[in-house]
Design brief:
The complex is a heterotrimer. Chain A has helices at residues 10-15, 30-40, and strands at residues 2-7, 19-23, 60-64, 68-70, 84-89. By secondary structure, chain A is an alpha+beta fold. Chain A is globular and about 25 Å long. Chain A starts with a strand and ends in a 5-residue tail after the last strand. In chain B, helix 17 (444-452) packs across helix 20, helix 17 (444-452) packs across helix 24 and helix 20 packs across helix 22 (536-556). By secondary structure, chain B is of the alpha+beta class. Chain B is globular. By secondary structure, chain C is α+β, with helices and mostly antiparallel strands. Helices cover 29% and strands 17% of the residues of chain C. In chain C, strands 1-8 form a two-stranded antiparallel sheet. Chain C has a two-stranded antiparallel ribbon with strand order 2-3. The longest helix of chain C has 23 residues, at 144-166. The N and C termini of chain C lie far apart (42 Å). The relative contact order of chain C is 0.20. The chains are: A alpha+beta, B alpha+beta, C alpha+beta. Chains B and C meet through helix 3, helix 7 and strand 13 of B and helix 1 of C.
Chain lengths: 94, 628, 167
């Protein structure tokens, strides 16, 4: 399936893109998505994706439009091509 | 005492004299510095019930315990007066070299009483106090004033806190500026203006000693190294402006006077767009290894050359909140505020009130007639030229600007009394302080934090947006945990505001932002500076005391439970679209949340403080005055 | 001016990386005096403009002008390292060295009235403390030749990248 992901913040600066289409096997989870992103954009590792490539570096999170935040504890959620996903750096404040 | 000079400077502008006060070590251990010590000094020195623009309202400046040492982000000071906007405590923070100079001049705090009849530049040269005539500085903007003082006095190590033209004109949300940073909110600039204090300059030539320099240095180096890593990356690379797209995505970006939470042009005024096209450089405050201030400059068009440090709170207030789609216009609006010495947030939210009032047909072209614009002009969200003109009129108190310079609460009350209208319904303030860049209809713990906030609608003192935005709790509903959450987040923030330490360092101690992560480290830093023996429980007390002295101040100045309110719009108008569509906070929800919060604080149902509580916090005299 | 023949090292600040935090001044004054006091620092930050920031320390000039200018011959330069030192027994704080130095690298100690200058922390095991402490790695102990090499590399890379882009 194909999912669309929007890059906000640091991930946008690093990838140079505001959004991307990612091809990913059916039944894949958000954990898989992290790995695919790490392989497609290796510069995200360290800054946005943890070196183990299966979680995001604080304070980065996924957000699904009208569905809320996907943090570590929901990473086994299955991806859905209808999900409008954003990769955000969410440390509030300032 | 080590780490403090043990001396507080008092200056009387009416009599043009000064004296030194000494306090026992226990007083320092209770109030530490920053907003807590400044608020305590305000409690001690104010003429209770006075008008904030009268001589009885003192200016209280309290330095940071780590100022002038290498402790990262410790170069900050607190300032407190009674706020001309709210009538309650107006406590603010600023930072950078001014606090270092104050430490090295040998003063822990300064209290300024009375009012002069001629404009003055107060110059504190180590232990000497000079009342220098300020006639040559009048009408200079904040940046020019600092440079001119250095020029006149011939030393670039002299640091000044100044007011700009807006403070001179007593714009109620005028601020105090030093070293390119601002004690931004609650109207300090107007208080200084009412005393004819144009600038406070300091030169300090002594060195700073600490109790255990080796331990302090080791901690400082470790924190400085951690501050180059992922925990601060957002601030270093993009700055706080990365919040524009984040808040827009969550449907919480204040748009057109909080009518919506989603702005169709958010990308154009986003931090990412600013970084790509207009960023000049990142700069740091004194003592800061992070470096988060993003200097942005307009390149072409009518605002070419406009440059300032742009923060999220400025960008939403003068950007999406005014419907502005042009980043360069937003930079210009920020620059006008920074040079004039005005709070960008209150200015932006006051502008947006005026624009909505015009779009609803209550203000007309005639209301905008003045010497500068004899034909008047229209007001429309997103029209940069009109909004720039109106902001300049506020700075100069010209025409309608004179009304708007009073802030949304007074402006709307005046208009409603004169014209029988209901413009208060879109005057977006709490206790008279204009709201921050998060629509709390979709952040219910934060709504509680804002409503009960001691200085008014302020995100910085509350910090309850954290559990809402991070998803720790459901931001669209309320439950019995929210009172404790609002209390805990507020007292956590109060620790940082008292030392002070910039909150951006909060994860760099051990990787955790919570107390168990940072409190042990902070205790060690305090002990290495002063030789005291603070532990984690003592750090908790710092936060609780800071908040309590401010609350006590408010109670003595007439606060009641009804003052903890939310704006009309947030009770009656659900967010129309976006990720937070449909949400609002009902009056019942708010009262329920307030009950929970007062209970969590150990206060009465009316929000008053029991005597025993105050005594337990070491505030016996406060207990006598306002305890129940 | 350090010439192409010079192997003298000096502390250089890369202005584009400097954020003006002044931590170098704190650590220098502490290392030299045990107090945090930027008036006693041998490296000084300067803001020419809101966004033009750098730090300045002794640049170990060849035939250093400060040495020549001192009327009491209180200043000398190590022929091997180029490091300048001031003899406190001879110095009387006349400040002619301040006039001679194009970079403002010398300062007069306000209480002792003696000239002070960067000595590259030769007595510290891990070398110049300011270099060690700068959070942005803007400071380095370097030679003029190394600086020139870096500039040439940077130019070459940019030219190659530009030409690759055109392909």
């Amino acid at each position: 399936m194909r999912v669309q992901i929007e890059f906000f913040g640091i991930s946008r600066i690093i990838t140079g893109k505001s959004h991307a289409f990612i091809d990913i096997p059916d039944g894949a989870t958000y954990r898989t998505l992290v790995r695919v992103l790490a392989n497609t954009y290796p510069k995200l590792i360290g800054n946005v994706i943890r070196p183990e490539k299966d979680t995001l570096q604080y304070p980065n999170v996924f957000h699904i439009q009208n569905n809320g935040l996907i943090k570590q504890d929901r990473f086994d959620l299955k991806l859905n091509p209808d999900h409008q996903i954003a990769l955000m750096s969410l440390s509030a404040g300032g | 005492m080590i780490g403090y000079s043990g001396k507080i400077l008092h200056v009387d502008l009416t009599e043009q004299n000064s004296w030194s006060e000494e306090k026992p070590e226990k007083w320092y251990q209770t109030y530490i510095g920053g907003v807590s010590m400044a608020s305590r000094l305000c409690w001690e020195n104010i003429e209770v019930g006075c008008d904030p623009l009268s001589p009885g309202n003192p200016i209280c400046i309290a330095n940071g315990i780590f100022s002038g040492t290498p402790v990262p982000v410790g170069g900050k000071y607190g300032i407190a007066s009674k706020s001309p906007l709210t009538g309650f405590i107006g406590d603010s923070l600023s930072g950078s070299w001014f606090s270092v100079a104050l430490k090295r001049a040998g003063w822990d705090a300064i209290v300024i009483h009375g009012a002069g009849d001629k404009w003055v530049n107060l110059f504190i040269d180590d232990e000497r106090v000079h009342f220098r005539p300020a006639a040559k500085l009048l009408s200079l903007n904040t940046y020019e004033t600092e440079e001119k003082i250095r020029d006149i006095l011939g030393d670039d190590q002299i640091r000044s806190a100044t007011i700009g033209p807006a403070g001179e004109k007593l714009v109620r949300f005028a601020n105090v500026t030093n070293d390119g940073r601002q004690a931004g909110r609650t109207g300090h600039g107007a208080v200084w203006g009412s005393k004819k204090l144009k600038a406070l300059s300091i030169r300090g030539t002594s060195g700073v000693k600490v109790a255990d320099p080796q331990t302090l240095l080791k901690w400082a180096k470790d924190i400085s190294d951690a501050a180059q890593g992922p925990y601060t990356q957002k601030y270093r690379v993009l700055g706080t402006v990365s919040n524009v797209l984040n808040m827009n995505r969550l449907g919480l970006l204040p748009t057109r006077n909080y009518q919506q939470g989603e702005f169709e042009a958010a990308e154009n005024i986003s931090g990412e767009f600013m970084h790509k096209h207009f960023k000049v450089k990142t700069i740091a405050c004194a003592q800061c290894p992070i470096g988060c201030e993003q200097m942005a400059r307009a390149k072409d068009g009518p605002y070419a050359g406009a440059m300032s440090g742009v923060e999220y709170e400025s960008l939403y207030a003068l950007g999406s909140n005014c419907g502005i789609t042009d980043m360069q216009a937003a930079i210009k609006l920020v620059e006008i505020c920074d040079r004039a010495g005005m709070d960008t947030m209150s200015a932006g939210v006051t502008l947006s009130w005026a624009i909505e009032t015009f779009e609803r047909g209550i203000f007309t072209r005639k209301d905008l007639v003045c010497d500068r614009y004899p034909e008047g002009f229209d007001l429309k969200f997103g029209n940069a030229e009109q909004i720039v003109s109106l902001l300049e009129m506020i700075r100069d108190r010209e025409g309608l600007g004179d009304l708007l310079a009073e802030g949304t609460r007074r402006a709307s009350t005046t208009i409603d009394n004169q014209r029988g209208t209901t413009t208060y319904q879109w005057a977006m303030n709490i206790k008279g302080l204009e709201l921050p860049g998060y629509d709390a209809r979709g952040l219910k713990t934060f709504a509680l934090g804002l409503a009960t906030g001691v200085r008014g609608g302020c995100h910085n003192r509350s910090a309850a947006y954290d559990p809402d935005i991070s998803g720790e709790v459901d931001r669209f509903s309320v439950d019995e945990t929210r009172g404790v959450l609002a209390k805990d987040t507020e007292e956590y923030a109060a620790v940082y505001d008292t030392l002070p330490l910039c909150k951006f360092i909060r994860r760099c101690f051990t990787g955790q932002a919570d107390r168990s992560g940072s409190w042990p480290a902070i205790a060690q830093l305090i002990n290495a500076t002063t030789g005291w023996q603070f532990n984690e429980a003592d750090i908790d007390l710092i936060g609780e005391r800071a908040h309590t002295i401010k609350k006590a101040f408010n109670i003595r100045e007439g606060w009641t439970r009804a003052d903890d309110h939310l704006p009309y719009r947030w009770h009656r108008e659900p967010l129309p679209k976006g990720a937070s569509k449909g949400s609002l906070v009902t009056e019942e929800e708010l009262e329920y949340l307030k009950d929970l919060y007062y209970a969590a604080k150990g206060w009465t149902k009316d929000g008053l403080i029991p005597k025993e509580k105050l005594v337990a916090l070491g505030m016996e005299d406060v207990a006598e005055a306002i305890g129940v | 001016m350090a010439t192409a023949k010079s192997k003298y090292k000096y502390i250089n600040c890369k202005a584009e990386d400097c954020v003006g935090c002044q931590l170098c001044e704190y650590i220098c004054s502490f290392t030299k005096t045990g107090e945090f006091n930027t008036y006693r620092s041998r490296i000084r930050t300067v803001r020419a403009d809101e966004v033009l920031i750098t730090a300045v320390a002794c640049r170990t000039c060849q035939d250093a002008p400060c040495v020549i200018a001192c009327p009491r011959r209180a200043i000398s330069q190590d022929p091997e390292t180029g490091v300048i030192s001031v003899d406190p027994g001879q110095c009387d704080g006349c400040a002619w060295c301040i006039e001679a130095c194009d970079f403002g690298a010398l300062s007069i100690n306000p209480s002792l009235k003696l000239a002070e200058i960067c000595d590259q922390c030769q007595d510290q095991e891990d070398g110049p403390q300011c270099v060690k402490w700068c959070p942005k790695d803007a400071l380095e102990l370097t030679t003029a030749d190394q600086r020139a090499q870096k500039a040439r590399h940077k130019l070459a890379k940019e030219e190659v990248l530009m030409s690759k882009k055109k392909e």
